[in-house]
Predict the structure.
Amino acid sequence: MKNSKVDFFFDKTSKWQAEYAKLRQLVLDCQLKEELKWGCPCYTFQQSNVVLIHGFKEYCALLFHKGVLLKDTENLLIQQTANVQSARQIRFTSLDEIVKNEAILKAYLFEAIEVERLGLEVKMKKTAEFDRPEELEQALGADAELKAAFESLTPGRQRGYLLHFSQPKQSKTRVSRIEKCRPLIFDGKGWNER
């Protein structure tokens, strides 16, 4: 059933307007509940997120929240980045692509619903399993207050920092990021929170 709170997403002028409309129809045909989450249409089954419609400059996509658990018999699922543990996308660059694959897409949607119906969970990597850059270890070892502040952050915020600090190839850039983030860490915020 369509949710009027989500209509704005489909009504706004977009490069992907026709593709969005078709994806919406496909997902709603699968009897999922339409909600608005993260500014995008999100479809749920028994209050669990199943799939989301979103778009980017080069493509629009269906994002399956537990896509890693799907069989992906057609080899369509894409991991957005190396750090995404659970979600997987199916990307589209034309309406024809969606129409041509309608039956396959519905099969993926029904499989994703079955994953939720069965209560399957993705085994997520624990924060302690993420690599800690040497520069962060040195900073935490040299400053007990920083170490205490970092360790009091939520696991998600800690992971965010670990990924943010690990990205640069050069040590001096990692050190610079750590220094710039000190105030945020002491404020209990994530690296991209203000």
